[in-house]
Amino acid sequence: MKDRFGREIRSLRISITPKCNLKCFYCHREGHDSENINLMTPSELGKIVKTSLKFGIKKVKISGGEPLLRNDLPQIIESISDDNLKDISLTTNGIFLEECAQKLKDAGLNRVNVSIDTLNPEKYKKITYCGDLEKVKRGVKEAINVGLTPLKINYLALSNTVEDLDDLMNYCRELGAILQIIEFIPLNEHLKKYHVDITPIENKIAEQCDKVITRKFMQNRKKYLVNGLEIEFVRPMDNTEFCSHCTRIRLTHDGFLKPCLLRDDNLVDILTPLRNGEDIEKCFIECINRREPYFKA
Ligand SMILES: Nc1nc2c(ncn2[C@@H]2O[C@H](COP(=O)(O)OP(=O)(O)OP(=O)(O)O)[C@@H](O)[C@H]2O)c(=O)[nH]1
Ligand SMILES: C[S@@+](CC[C@H](N)C(=O)[O-])C[C@H]1O[C@@H](n2cnc3c(N)ncnc32)[C@H](O)[C@@H]1O
Ligand code: SF4
Ligand code: SF4
Q: Model pTM greater than 0.95?
């Protein structure tokens, strides 16, 4: 199904918990800062995902908060798995990845994205408040060992992490991981000082690259192949092209369909109708009707 702006719906991003074991100072909390712990069960999530397939969803991304904090994550993955889904992936801070990678793979997870903004352990601890970088790196290795690939490293470009980019490029090249360079979305005035224009970084990589790929169904994001390393750019800020190719809807941890990451005023309650045994297809129709590009031309 397409929305009013001709954008297909292909990907569902699910936050399964608002809780996190880290406290990154910049966190956007998936655009839904609610501490409501009315979490959905694996079976409820399974029903919602199966219904979403009728509207064109082909890929599911599991996120949070920190999704590995849910002990029933393997059951969630089993419950949402379906032959008609092309991809189930997870985005994580990686702290608990080493111990659960194999279980997640066995449950049907295809791949993981792991967030690492710096390879300096002290700086990593400062940014995340308390994170242990060595543990995350062991998790990354284990995820690759068990085949949760292609694995992406999410690097957020901040004024205090730009100097870490070269190290991360080398790290990803050695691992055979994709490096994803993400533009920072400042959530308030105070955080604006951390925003960096990543255009010069992208231009430099574009000059060196052997091949460019455009992800047509993923916000027209550009991927560059540079000397064996794949680098993807996520540039959401003021980017009308990004929003006009957005194929993603979200499900919040407390059971609302969310038409756009950057808006929290147009949510559609899906959990109440589900728990009342009512039809939930109408919730998807309403959510898709409410979709509009955040940054418009
Ligand atoms: N503005 C905006 N940012 C997004 C959207 N989807 C993902 N992002 C940002 O993209 C970055 C990477 O997100 P990930 O969870 O790793 O997933 P992804 O790269 O979007 O998805 P895959 O390519 O399928 O792995 C995060 O900073 C997200 O906030 C979106 O729809 N809108
Ligand atoms: C909100 S986290 C949730 C999953 C998991 N806890 C993690 O850190 O990967 C998902 C992604 O959003 C990114 N992110 C968080 N706040 C952001 C912001 N203000 N701007 C851009 N990306 C952000 C993180 O770097 C991470 O890669
Ligand atoms: S680990 Fe993820 S959810 Fe937790 S604070 Fe950092 S970015 Fe936010
Ligand atoms: S419309 Fe733009 S800001 Fe909103 S979810 Fe899509 S890409 Fe993100």
A: yes
